Amino acid sequence: MFLLPAVPLHGEEEHRKKETKTDGIQLTPAMTQLAIMAAVLLGVGLCGGILAGLLGVGGGIVIVPVLYHLMSLLDIDSDVAMKLAVGTSLATIIPTSIVSMRSHLRKDAVDIPLLKNWGPAIAVGVVLIGIVKGEVMIGVFAVTAAAVAIHMAFAPEGLRLADHLPSGVPRFGIGMLIGVVSTMMGIGGGTLTVPTLVLCNYPIRRAVGTASAIGLIIAFPGTIGAIIGGWGSDELPPWSLGNVSLIALVILAPATMLAAPWGAKLAHSIKTRNLRRAFALFLGITSVRMFIDLLT
């Protein structure tokens, strides 16, 4: 007995093709790009949190350059990319600084009088972030990153430049410089505050504690300035609130908060000096890349 091959009824073949196409989720290039971006941001947030706990620096010093490079790869204009990186980093620092500051306040490791003295300097930075061009931000970050890299790689431990922090106008001037540069860089201030205070014979724990509070003072108004500065711009990517990427913020903030305690634990089990040198290398490469972007 011969069996004839089954012949599909009219329309059945087209129906099967449709079922095949809808059986699984079809990943479009945009979805793939978004998934890769999310994975990179998660890793950056974790690294930023670990470095914050390990070296006493804010996660912004890592978040800003990586966000900048990532957005550049997505064909976002370098000027817009830098403003987005800075604004998003400042927004990310807010919850991290709150958690850190509360911990340091319980240990009486925050210099409240110094915060009151340096407070007005932060207002200057808030104004600048809304009006300064992205190229200026890139230049400031490149120069400062190079200086911090050299300090972290070569400065001998225990180095001191003064017996105490200057008073009066010089003290206010130092605070203004830290506030302005940190806001334009999108960092919480720890990268500049801790070395400055330690070089002026400040106890390291009090320097780190005070820097955590300065991070909040810089980040909160700085984020508002970033939102206002980018409001209504047509060059921003989707899901941006002014110069703050909401997608990046939702991924970065929890990761940074989660990983900060890990860094604090690692500080007691590995050689910090080697990590400082590795981090200095990262900053040096970032600085060179940003200088190249400015010159080309």
Question: What does this protein structure show overall?
Answer:
- With 296 residues, the protein is an all-alpha fold.
- The protein has one domain (31-295).
- The protein contains 11 helices and 2 strands, in the order αααααααααββαα.
- The protein has helices at residues 12-23, 29-55, 60-73, 78-106, 112-131, 134-154, 169-185, 190-199, 204-230, 246-266, 272-295, and strands spanning 240-241, 244-245.
- It has a two-stranded antiparallel ribbon.
- Strand 1 (240-241) and strand 2 (244-245) form a beta hairpin.
- Helix 4 packs across helix 10 (246-266).
- The radius of gyration is 24 Å and the shape is globular.
In angstroms, what is the radius of gyration? 24 Å
Average pLDDT works out at 78
Topology as a string of helices (H) and strands (E): HHHHHHHHHEEHH
Tally the helices: what do you get? 11
| Uncertain residue ranges | 1-22
Count of distinct structural domains: 1
Beta-strand content bin: under 5%
